[in-house]
């Protein structure tokens, strides 16, 4: 063919050189016609078609048994999991070629994102029909789909799940405990180690105490101590235990007849001390105080208040005063003689106030007359003449006029009176200056005793 074209050009050149018009001689030569003769009967007019990972459905003018004859049309379809790239329908043309090309490309879904606090495993990666199963880390639970499948159109089924912390933390409280109050107290210090909390998801937990702090004094009774804990997802756990404080107690002591008790703390709790006291005119016989022991018993034996015995036949002033030391106050009343009007008036008022004097622990000593007929007495009991003289000298008491000297429980001269005193005036002075706080409280309890 190439040779024939060269010959034609050569002849055309040659004739043009001899004066002949070139195009007049061109029609004598025709270009070789390579157009194939149409043959609808040739079963292999186009090359036999094929589609890897797919299938072709062809329709030929000569019948279904022919796949590549002239005019045959084929429909292309890919297998599941593959996508057709190119023409979906091709035809065998007269130029022995198909009208188009196509191939099947394997379909894939996009890569699944990572799941916080979890993971997934897939059966065949991210290709069609591959199933990815989701699992969560310990302490987390799946919310949503447990698996997703790559569908034939390249999209995942369902929605992406999440791993949520739904597992509550764990906390264990210390055991309940009983604590006995300390001696003389109604409270007890109770300590414990705060509980530790754990969580499968979180390392840092906020433990909250609901109740009294450890290492503090707890009052008598039952106390409920609670702890609660939250993780970062606000899951909650709690525990509780009991703190019971016991105050061991003795049976309450009864006050002695003609006396009373003063007790520390709560009167009968472990370690409490009860002091015995006697009313005016009585003195204590036995132990002065008792202590409540741990075994709920009082130590020692009961005491009693007996009438105060004053020995008037002593030889010295000191022997007389020692009997009153820290027990009684003394009111020494002196007069020139028994007929002294001030003495008589004072004596009447003293006799009427005898009960009030006993409540204030006051004993009256009378010094009357002059030697050799001088008399000293406590009520009807007479004093030795040496003791009488000793009292006058010790406290500088004159025989020539009426007077009274008030001594406190330590034997100190606290006040002198040179005229008769009404009982309420005398009592007011004693109450204001000689009674201690405890005696004032006792006196208030017996304000109506002498009425």
TrEMBL record:
UniProt keyword annotation of DNA damage present: no
Pfam entry (one): Sushi
Keyword terms of this UniProt record: Angiogenesis, Cell adhesion, Cytoplasm, Disulfide bond, Repeat, Secreted, Signal, Sushi, Synapse
Main localization (coarse): other
Gene3D superfamilies: Complement Module, domain 1
Domain Sushi: 56-106, 107-165, 248-307
Protein name (Swiss-Prot/TrEMBL): Sushi repeat-containing protein SRPX2
Source organism per UniProt: Mastacembelus armatus (zig-zag eel)
């Amino acid at each position: 063919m190439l040779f024939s074209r060269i010959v034609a050009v050569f002849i055309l050149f040659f004739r043009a050189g001899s004066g002949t018009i070139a195009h007049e001689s061109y029609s004598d030569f025709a270009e070789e016609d390579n157009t194939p003769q149409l043959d609808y009967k040739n079963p292999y007019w186009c090359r036999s078609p094929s589609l890897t990972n797919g299938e072709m459905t062809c329709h030929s003018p000569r019948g279904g048994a022919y796949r590549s004859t002239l005019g045959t049309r084929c429909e292309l379809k890919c297998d599941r999991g593959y996508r057709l790239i190119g023409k979906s329908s091709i035809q065998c043309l007269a130029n022995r070629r198909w009208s188009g090309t196509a191939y099947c490309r394997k379909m894939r879904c996009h890569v699944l994102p990572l799941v916080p606090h979890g993971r997934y495993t897939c059966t065949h990666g991210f290709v069609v029909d591959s199933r990815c199963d989701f699992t969560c880390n310990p302490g987390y639970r799946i919310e949503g789909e447990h698996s997703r499948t790559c569908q034939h159109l390249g999209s995942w089924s369902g929605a992406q799940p999440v791993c949520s912390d739904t597992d509550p933390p764990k906390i264990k409280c210390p055991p309940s405990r009983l604590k006995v109050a300390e001696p003389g107290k109604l409270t007890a210090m109770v300590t414990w180690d705060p509980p530790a909390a754990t969580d499968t998801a979180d390392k840092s937990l906020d433990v909250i105490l609901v109740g009294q702090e450890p290492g503090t004094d707890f009052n008598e009774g039952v106390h409920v101590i609670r702890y609660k804990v939250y993780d970062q997802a606000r899951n909650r756990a709690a525990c509780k235990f009991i703190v019971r404080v016991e105050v061991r107690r003795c049976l309450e002591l009864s006050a002695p007849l003609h006396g009373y008790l003063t007790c520390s703390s709560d009167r009968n709790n472990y370690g409490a001390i009860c002091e015995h006291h006697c009313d005016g005119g009585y003195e204590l016989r036995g132990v002065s105080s008792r202590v409540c022991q741990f075994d709920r018993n009082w130590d020692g034996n009961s005491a009693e208040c007996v009438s105060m015995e004053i020995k008037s036949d002593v030889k010295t002033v000191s022997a007389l005063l020692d009997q009153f030391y820290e027990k009684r106050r003394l009111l020494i009343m002196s007069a020139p003689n028994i007929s002294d009007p001030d003495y008589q008036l004072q004596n009447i008022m003293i006799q009427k106030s005898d009960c009030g004097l006993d409540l204030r622990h006051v004993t009256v000593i009378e010094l009357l007359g002059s030697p050799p007929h001088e008399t000293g007495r406590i009520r009807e009991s007479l004093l030795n003449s040496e003791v009488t003289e000793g009292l006058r000298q010790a406290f500088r008491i004159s025989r020539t006029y009426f007077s009274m000297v008030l001594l406190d429980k330590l034997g100190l001269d606290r006040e002198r009176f040179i005229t008769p005193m009404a009982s309420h005036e005398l009592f007011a002075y004693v109450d204001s200056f000689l009674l201690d706080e405890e005696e004032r409280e006792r006196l208030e309890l017996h304000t109506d005793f002498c009425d």
